[in-house]
Amino acid sequence: MLIIDSKDCENIDKALKKYKKKFEKSKTLLQLRSRQNFTKPSIKRREERLKAIYKQQIASGKID
Prior knowledge:
Blueprint: H1 12-26, H2 28-36, H3 41-60
């Protein structure tokens, strides 16, 4: 549950903007979407490995 501290003189739009930013940082929506489908642990590891390889290639300059 997200709690936003708002002052009495604060505009509702600013409070809503704070809430949205806090909601994004908590990554709640990403968790909900990932829980909709079950992915096997082997597939998760494969994806992580491919991401790491891709990042290394970018860092070394092989991919632009």
